[in-house]
Automatic annotation (TrEMBL):
It catalyses: ATP + H2O = AMP + diphosphate + H(+). Residues 36-109, 175-235 form the NTP pyrophosphohydrolase MazG-like domain. SUPFAM superfamilies: all-alpha NTP pyrophosphatases. The gene is mazG. The keyword Ion transport does not apply. One of its GO terms (molecular function) is ATP diphosphatase activity. Belongs to the nucleoside triphosphate pyrophosphohydrolase family. Keywords: Hydrolase. This is Nucleoside triphosphate pyrophosphohydrolase. GO terms for biological process: dATP catabolic process; dGTP catabolic process; dTTP catabolic process; dUTP catabolic process; response to stress; TTP catabolic process; UTP catabolic process. Gene3D superfamilies: MazG-like.
Length: 270
């Protein structure tokens, strides 16, 4: 019966759950899958989430379908391990998120009016989440901001939380002044302090840069991804121009590559 389920392409999520159970079977499963635990699988989960975002950014809908499947597999993997350890099951995870969505949308599933702005809905959402944190004894303003988040995203979330209780600069001018101050401290640290202290000052500068993005209504992570893509595009164009000259980057020098970079940038802006 289990084999029939595994080979039934129309069996949906139950097929995937059974495949994972078979992979993790201590007697007949895959040795690699059997050895995995929450800690070893977590990096793959993060990687798959980024690959989903990458497919969306590239508008590759066929690839997105596959990447979403890979990400779903990560949830199935973690729930299988959770079930084995007696922590939770796939069904309890589904029930938990379903209950949460219903509770957080009283204007859709309850008696509250849907006639409210997006800003009011966001405020209501945050109030509901605050109440949930209180129920979990997360009393501090910053409680519940996951430590395992990418550092730039966690910085943004920490700053948003602090801003809700009034710990924030009122204007971008003050944030920019702080960036100038932190940049100056980094230069001083570079010249006089230890590597550890230099790293600390560099972190302070990155943190304030994330805050500036928030004040400007920008997503720092998205802005950096775009900058990465722009750098990649322009450097590849420089490489292509060098190739047409019979050269590789290692056979060129900074002055030549910088001139080619400026030419590529000028063409993009023309």
């Amino acid at each position: 019966m289990a084999d029939d389920l595994i080979h039934d392409q129309n069996a949906g999520i139950e097929r995937l759950l059974e495949i994972m159970r078979r992979l993790r079977d201590p007697d007949t499963g895959c040795p690699w899958d059997i050895e995995q635990d929450f800690d070893s699988i977590a990096p793959y989960t993060i990687e798959e989430a980024y690959e989903v975002a990458d497919a969306i950014q590239r508008r590759d809908w066929s690839e997105l379908e596959g990447e979403l499947g890979d990400l779903l597999l990560q949830s199935v993997y973690h729930t299988a391990m959770g079930e084995e350890a007696g922590h939770f099951t796939f069904q309890s995870v589904v029930r938990n998120i379903s209950d949460k969505m219903v509770a957080r949308h009283p204007h859709v599933f309850g008696s509250e009016s849907r006639d409210k702005s997006a800003e009011q809905q966001t405020a209501d959402w945050e109030a509901i989440k605050a109440a949930e944190r209180a129920d979990k004894a997360q009393r501090g303003t910053l409680d519940g901001v996951a430590i395992g988040l990418p550092a730039l995203l966690r910085a943004l979330k920490l700053q948003k939380r602090a801003a809700r209780v009034g710990f924030d600069w009122p204007s971008t001018d003050q944030v920019i002044d702080k960036i100038t101050e932190e940049a100056r401290e980094l230069v001083e640290a570079r010249d006089t302090l230890s590597q550890t202290e230099i790293e600390e000052e560099f972190g302070d500068l990155l943190f304030v840069m994330a805050n500036l993005g928030r004040h400007l209504g920008l997503d720092p992570e998205a802005a950096l991804r775009a900058a990465n893509a722009k750098f990649t595009r322009r450097f590849e164009a420089v490489e292509a121009r060098l190739k047409s000259l019979g050269k590789t980057p290692s056979e060129s020098d900074l002055a030549e590559m910088d001139a080619l970079w400026d030419a590529v940038k000028a063409e993009e802006r023309a």
